[in-house]
Amino acid sequence: MLETAQKTSPEPLRRMPALHAENLACRRGGRLVFTGLGFGLEQGEALLLTGRNGSGKSSLLRLLALLTPRLRGSLTWTGIEVTEQPDAWRQALAWLGHTDAVKSDLTVRESLSGAQILRKGKPDSLDHALSRFDLTTIADRPGRFLSAGQRRRAALARVMLSGAPIWLLDEPASGLDEPSRAALHFTLREHMKSGGLAVISTHGDIHIPNAHPIDLGDFAPSVDALAEEWA
Amino acid sequence: MSRFHHLVARDLLMVWRRPGDVLLVLAFFLLAASLFPLGVGPEPLVLKRIGPGVLWVAALFAAMLSLDRLFADDLGDGSLEHLALAPLPLELTALAKCLAHWLTGGLPLTLMSPALGLLFGLDASQIAVLAVSLFIGTPSLSLLGGLGAALTIGARRGGALMALLVLPLAVPVLIFGVTAVESVTADEGSRHALVLLAAFFLVALASTPWAMAAALRQAVE
User: Fold this and answer.
1) Per the structure, how many domains does chain B have?
2) Which residues contact A189 (CB under 8 A, 6 or more apart)?
3) Residue B122 — left, alpha, or beta (φ > 0 → left; ψ -120 to 50 → alpha)?
4) How far apart (Å, rounded) are the C-alpha atoms in residues A145 and A223?
5) Closest in B2, B77, B86 to A119, CB measured
6) Which residues are CB-neighbours of B90 under 8 A, at least 6 positions away?
7) A62, A102, A118: residue with CB nearest B77
8) What is the pLDDT of residues A67-126, one digit of tens each?
């Protein structure tokens, strides 16, 4: 679906970055979280979201995934507004949220292969992803016996398996030990070297090349914006 | 459709790993139904008269028992976000979960019902119609229950709230189900009631998935 979209509109591809956001605003629970946020990402680039707790890092990620409706603004992928082709957009995404979505009654292997079936990820790469995050020995253990860090690693392996061009990661390094953090960085570099994009919320524990930092605090609504909101 | 099948199989596997939930439902059905003869006395005519209604009400309550975790577990561990982002429409995802719920709830109840029918002294023809009516009626209960579970997913004490939401909607199922069993001996037979039960199921099948998907989208927002 995306390929046909690219063929029909080659023009915006050249002028605009692959992923382009403009004037995004988000409201959560009646509160304006951020406003006027924009960025552009080319293939192989990453956006690092920083900012204090509650500044809207997770909200932005949820907004990008279309889980939360946006208040205003535009988000285009290869020149096409993503809400016009939501299915193709979701197919292009890999998601890592606060929670790891590892089922307590299923083994790691079952959880991951299930995710592959659901979104038609890369075939036959399950063992590769398991060994990357050192999960091979615990692959047949039910999720409820895993530690928080192990569950995080399983969730990261699922992102790697997805084969999606755009990764949305909410604090991927939280709870990880040093070797796992290195595996995460290696995987991110590999993903970006192959032309992938990533939007990552972080508290300063992610260091990758071609990363554009963006502080959500800079987009906190001003008094004027809040007044406009009430008007 | 392989994704749909996968979701059903996944839920069945999880129930298989933790069979307590299903056994609880069946034990409740058995216990609730067998308390009535103790409560109203062993008069065979009375038991035969109230049997169909008691069994249907017990099945209705039993079907409610396992519903509160239908979507709550997926919301709690973050799987619901992934399901919402998956290429399979959320309507079909919800339907798959309801199917798995019926296979592990309504179907075993249906299979168990003839034994309980004997307990109440029902005729062979009544027992047969009871099983058929449960077979046609319990899928509607799973769909209505799925709707209740999706609507109350984030609520505290969601189970009680869900029962309040679902039980009034399930009244037609109860009425047609009981009517089917009671009218076996009447002239018109139980065909009409069974057809109405099936019609109710089709309406629920056509309408509840959209509502469930909308409620689930609201929940992951």
Assistant:
1) 1
2) A208, A209
3) beta
4) 49
5) B86
6) B83, B84, B212, B213, B216, B217
7) A102
8) 988 888 899 988 889 889 888 898 889 999 888 888 888 999 998 888 888 877 666 688
